[in-house]
């Protein structure tokens, strides 16, 4: 007899059901769903009872992802612009920093930020950000910036030089032509690249356990360490959360990409 069937009989007995026909019907009904139920019901109930604990890790994962993407944008966009329009020392410095960040494992970057540089606690008035979270955001954000710079470098380069020349022809300075003519088109063309970048940063948040942060995956590990029979159920539950986060964000970016796509044959 399956575990779910045993639970059904136990439930019937606890309710004082004397009718063996009723007990048999209950057992049959429960066992009829065994074909789609993956895992043990008792272990699934253990996961549901600890959903609030996983929720704390989910909030940290989402917070790290959003903050890192924003930091990556604030640093990566100017870096991409320097690679396209800069020259001399500034361009070489940006290119070298990008190569170093992209070529260094993310766990090494996080360890350096936390243990070597010693990122301080950030006070926001209404609250504070711990050194570990600050180091996580800084490490993930700079790594994201190195990749986002390449997204923006490609999107800026994709805008025809004639657009820049047209802006100069109507009296704009070079900076104004880049800002008002090239950048709006480049941003619209860079939207698809953010789908991959978001997914990468979301997955990389699981590495912050190395500096003592308990994000979603780490809290899941804590749960199936506590109840070793629930390994499959915890992993499936966490995988479903990651899937929902990735799917909804990618669909939202798909919509933005379609909504703001530059019509074919036009430049703006």
From TrEMBL:
The chain crosses the membrane at residues 53-81, 93-116, 122-142, 230-249. Residues 58-247 form the ABC transmembrane type-1 domain. SUPFAM superfamilies: MetI-like (SSF161098). Keywords: Amino-acid transport, Cell membrane, Membrane, Transmembrane, Transmembrane helix, Transport. It is a multi-pass membrane protein. InterPro entries: AA_ABC_transptr_permease_3TM, ArtM/GltK/GlnP/TcyL/YhdX-like, MetI-like, MetI-like_sf. Gene3D superfamilies: MetI-like. One of its GO terms (cellular component) is ATP-binding cassette (ABC) transporter complex. The keyword Transmembrane helix applies. One of its GO terms (biological process) is amino acid transport. Belongs to the binding-protein-dependent transport system permease family. This is Glutamine ABC transporter substrate-binding protein. It comes from Halorubrum tropicale. The lineage of its organism: Archaea, Methanobacteriati, Methanobacteriota, Stenosarchaea group, Halobacteria.
């Amino acid at each position: 007899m399956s575990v779910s069937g045993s639970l059904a009989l136990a439930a019937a007995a606890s309710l004082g059901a004397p009718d063996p026909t009723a007990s048999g019907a209950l057992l049959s009904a429960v066992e009829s769903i065994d074909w789609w139920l993956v895992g043990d019901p008792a272990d699934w109930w253990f996961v549901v009872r600890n959903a609030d604990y996983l929720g704390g890790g989910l909030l940290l994962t989402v917070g790290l992802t959003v903050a890192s993407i924003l930091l990556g944008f604030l640093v990566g966009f100017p870096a991409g612009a320097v690679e396209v329009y800069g020259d001399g020392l500034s361009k070489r410095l940006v290119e070298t920093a990008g190569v170093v960040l992209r070529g260094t494992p993310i766990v090494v970057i996080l360890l350096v930020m936390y243990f070597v540089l010693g990122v301080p606690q950030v006070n926001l008035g209404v609250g504070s950000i711990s050194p570990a979270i600050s180091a996580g955001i800084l490490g993930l954000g700079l790594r994201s910036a190195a990749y986002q710079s390449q997204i923006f470098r490609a999107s800026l380069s994709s805008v025809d030089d004639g657009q820049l020349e047209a802006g100069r022809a109507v009296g704009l300075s070079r900076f104004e032509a880049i800002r008002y003519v090239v950048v709006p088109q480049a941003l619209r063309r860079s939207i698809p690249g953010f789908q991959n970048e978001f997914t990468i940063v979301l997955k990389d948040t699981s590495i912050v356990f190395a500096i003592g942060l308990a994000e979603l995956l780490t809290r899941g590990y804590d749960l199936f360490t506590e109840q070793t029979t629930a390994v499959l159920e915890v992993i499936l539950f966490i995988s479903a959360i990651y899937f929902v986060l990735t799917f909804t964000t990618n669909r939202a970016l798909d919509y933005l990409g379609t909504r703001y796509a530059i019509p074919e044959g036009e430049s703006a």
